[in-house]
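Lab notebook: predicted structure, single chain.

Context: the supervisor wants predicted structures on file for every construct in the current expression panel, including those that have not yet been purified. This is the next one on the list. No modifications to the sequence; it matches the entry in the shared construct table.
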Amino acid sequence: MPAETLLPALDPMPIPGPPWLFHVLWLVTFAIHVVGVNVVLGSSLVGTVASFDRDRAFGRGVAKFFAEINTWAISLTITFGIAPLLFLQVLHGRLFYSATVIVAPAWLGLLLLLMAAYYLTYLGKYRLRAGKGAALPFALSALLFLCVAAIQVAVHLLSVQPGRWEGVLAQPWTLLADRAFVPRFLHFVLAGVTLAGILLAWIAVRRPPAEEERANASARAMFGVKIALLATVLQLVVGLWLTISVPREVLLGLMRGGGATMAPFTIGIFAGFGLLVFLARIRDPFADRASVRRSIELFGLAMILMLVTRHQLRDIYISAAGAGSTPATTGQWGVFAIFLVSFVLCLALSIVALVKSARDRPPHGEATA
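Prediction complete. Output recorded below exactly as produced.
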């Protein structure tokens, strides 16, 4: 069955606003979602590594830190993934949903993997609170989250290349045969590990601990810095691999876009090198808190710019496949205003809740309600 037959016709119903607006909203909401994805994926992986540390007290402390984070980060990440999914549906629904139907068992199984990983995270959390080891629950949850990430990457690549649909229908295993699959998958995994490491270091040094806790906090911070440094070095290698794995016509399309496409890509690469420099110069995290803070800022900058490049590559992939379309538009600004107010309000409430939960946490040993 040729791709032209598999590809649904463009929905005749007009979209409720100009396409550029939905592209912007898609990028903004997806960036928020990706921060959560990186936290969840990175926390599960770094928490697993810490669980196998020879120093059980240190390893369990770091694992408990990430377990506490993930029990709220998972739910928030899933919740904030709804908006970008809706904007994706508006702009490229016929491509994305066709791809998910072609690999329906894997796509629907994704929900089961998420639920199992979520409960394993809670199991690890409660075992750590009871003073027990949690290496197995952490390792299993990390494995399931890696499977979820792999499915997401594979479906994304399939959705922008309708020419592969016939082959995947005939031989489902070819879903993973795309040259860009492995480097793109590693690109997202390493981003999560980097963020988890920087987050661990920043939380450890942002407030001066009691003298008796300083050595432990310093050890946590250096552990986080080393993890982030290693992941960033590997990320630069994987980034080059990903670049040369992109189809030639797509890469040429990115270069021909001029400053609009090459500026985010180039600045994002320089931000990655800057992140590497700041991480490498940290010897004493408490004495060099500025470098830890700059690392967070540079990671955020690199992430946003790479998301812009990813978004542009999606459109170039679709154009190269001849699947681009210009939908009819209409204005529904009242509905848009309701969405915007609701989204901003929910985002603000989530931020306030997270800040208060961090600031109002009772000191160690204090009774809680």
